Amino acid sequence: MLLTDLAKLINANVVTCPSSPREVACAYTCDLLSWVMAKGKPGLAWVTVQTHMNVIAIASLHDIACIICPEGIQMEAPCVEKAEQEGIAVLFSEKTAYEICGLLYKAGVPPV
Amino acid sequence: MQRLAADLHIHSCLSPCADVEMTPNNIAAMASLKGLEAIAVCDHNSALNLPACEKAALRCGLVFLPGIEVTTSEEVHVLTFFADVESALDFGERLYKSIPNVMNKPEFFGEQLVMNEADELIRVENKLLPQASALTIDELVNACRKFNGVPVPAHINRQAHSLLANLGFIPPELKFTAMEAYSWIPLNVENSERYHIIYDSDAHCLGNISEREHYIGAYEKSAEGILAYLKESKPF
Predict the structure, then answer these.
(1) Is the minimum CB–CB distance between B174 and chain A shorter than 8 Å?
(2) How high does pLDDT run on average in chain B?
(3) Residue ranges of the alpha helices (H) in chain B?
(4) B169, A37: Cβ pair inside 8 Å?
(5) What is the C-alpha R_g of chain B?
(6) Facing B166 at nearest CB: one of A32, A53, A57
(7) Cα distances (angstroms) measured from residue A47 to each of B144, B213, B220
(8) What pLDDT band is residue B215 in, cutting at 50, 70 and 90?
(9) CA distance B190 to chain A (A)
(10) Cα end-to-end span (Å), chain A
(11) Strands B196-199 and B178-181
C-alpha cells in the first residue's frame, strides 16, 4: 500500500511526507521504544502515542516509512522537522491505535 | 572527595505502594541500624513527607538528600534530587498540578499518608500520586535544573518505567550526569562509563533498605556535597 493511500484509509492529516511515493511494507503499534528498536523494519507504519525525539531516531535507524500519532496527539515542531530531514512521514489521526491497526489489517497490511 | 554509604531511593508511607511502616522515624532508624551515612526519600511525584523525613534523618546523624521520583508523560521514572527540602517542596507543588485529577483507591493501591516528625498522621493525600505527569522528560529535566536539582533516570536496567525501556536509548541532548541502576540486574547500558551509576534499594518496606554496600561520592558530608558530585560530568 502506498503511504498516500494509507493516509486516506485512516483519514489522517499528513504533517510531513517525502515527495517520492513510498510503499508501506508492514505495520506495528507499540509505545515502548526499546521494543520498536528490536522489531522495527524498513517500510514500517508505526502507530505510537510517544512523541519524544527518540521516536524519530528509531524510525530513521530502521528506515521506517511513517509514524502515526493516534487520538489527535500532536508531535512538536522540532520532531516534525527532524522527521522531514530524515525523509520519514508523520501522520496525525483522530482515530485510536486500535482503529488504525484494524483498518490497516483489514486492508491487507501485514504485521512485522 | 569522600564516599558515603548510601541509599538514595527509599519510599515513605506517602507512596501508596509502600508499607505503612515506612514512617519517617522508622526509615531513619533502620538506615542508621544498617550503617548507612546518607539517605534520600523519593516518593512518587510528591515531596510532602520530606520535612518530617529530614528531621528524623538528622536526629539519627544521617545526611538527608531531598528527592522525588517523578513519572514523566512518557511514563519514565526519573529521580530528582534537591539541595534543600524547600526547593523540593516548591518543585513538588508544581509537579502536583501536572498530575491528573484522579483519586486514589486505597483498598487497591494503598494509603498515601503525610506524617509529621513524630510519625503522627497529618493528613491523607487523596489524589493518586504515582500517575504520569503532563511534563515530558525534556520539560522535567529543565524544570528540575531550574530548581538547582539533579535529574537521575531511575532503575535504568529495569524493564518497566525506565528510560531505556520506554525511550529506547539515553537522549544525549538531556546531558544526564548520573543513572540509577538495580544492583541485582545486569547493567547492560551502553557507554555506562560516562555516568555516575548509583545503586539504590527502591525500598517499599523497611527490610529492603540497602545494607552498607553502595557508596556515593560527596565533596562534603552534606546534601550539597552529594548534589555537587552528581551534577558533575564524569570524566571518561
Answers:
(1) no
(2) 96
(3) 24-33, 50-59, 85-97, 106-109, 137-146, 163-167, 223-231
(4) yes
(5) 16
(6) A32
(7) 31, 44, 49
(8) very high
(9) 13
(10) 15
(11) parallel
User: What is the DSSP-derived secondary structure letter of residue B221?
Assistant: S
Which residue's entry shows cell 570524566? B235
How does residue B235 score in pLDDT terms, banded at 50, 70 and 90? Answer: confident
Which residues, in sequence order, are bridge partners of residue B43? Answer: B46, B68
Taking the C-alpha atoms of residue A75 and residue A68, their distance in angstroms, rounded to an integer, is: 10
What's chain A's average pLDDT? 96
Which residues of chain B make contact with A58, given a CB cutoff of 8 A?
A: 168
Return phi, psi of residue B124, to 5°: -105, 130
Q: How far is CA A45 from CA A23, A27, A103, B19, in A?
A: 10, 5, 12, 44
Instruction: Check pLDDT > 80 for residue B236.
Output: no
| Predicted confidence (pLDDT) at residue B176 exceeds the cutoff of 80 | yes
3-state SS, residue B88: helix
Instruction: Give the pLDDT confidence score for residue A45 in this predicted structure.
Output: 98
Element (H, E) at A40: none
pTM: 0.91
Sheet holding B2-10, edge to edge: B150-153, B77-81, B63-71, B38-44, B2-10, B215-218
ipTM of the complex: 0.81
| Separation between Cα atoms, residue B202 and residue B197, nearest integer Å | 15
Query: B122 CA to chain A: closest CA distance, Å?
Result: 38
Nearest to B166 among A33, A53, A57 (CB): A33
Nine cell digits for residue B96? 502536583
Structure-block grid coordinates of residue B158: 529495569
Q: What is the pLDDT of residue B190?
A: 85
Rounded CA gap, A112 and B195, in Å? 35
Task: State residue B177's pLDDT score.
Answer: 98
- φ and ψ of B168, to 5 deg: 80, -45
Grid look-up 493511500 returns A5
| CA pair distance A25, A64, nearest whole angstrom | 9
- DSSP class per residue in B44-76: ETB-TTHHHHHHHHHHTT-EEEEEEEEEPTT--
